[in-house]
C-alpha cells in the first residue's frame, strides 16, 4: 500500500504539459515561456530539477 502512495507522490512532482493550466503554472514557477518549457521537457524529461538546470544553462 505504501508503495502506491510513494509512486503517486512522485508523479505529482513531475512536469506535465497538459492540461494548459499546469503548463502555465510551471512556466510561471520556472520563469520561462511555454516554448522553452516544452523544449526543456523534450530534451531532459519531466523532472523539475533537470528542467530547471537546463533552463538555467540556456540563459
UniProtKB/TrEMBL annotation:
InterPro entries: DUF3606 (IPR022037)
Pfam family, one: DUF3606
Name this protein carries in UniProt: DUF3606 domain-containing protein
Amino acid at each position: 500500500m505504501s508503495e502506491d502512495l510513494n509512486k503517486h507522490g512522485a508523479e505529482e512532482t513531475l512536469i506535465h504539459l497538459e492540461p494548459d493550466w499546469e503548463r502555465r503554472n510551471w512556466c510561471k514557477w520556472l520563469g520561462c515561456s511555454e516554448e522553452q518549457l516544452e523544449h526543456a521537457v523534450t530534451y531532459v524529461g519531466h523532472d523539475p530539477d533537470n528542467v530547471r538546470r537546463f533552463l538555467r544553462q540556456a540563459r
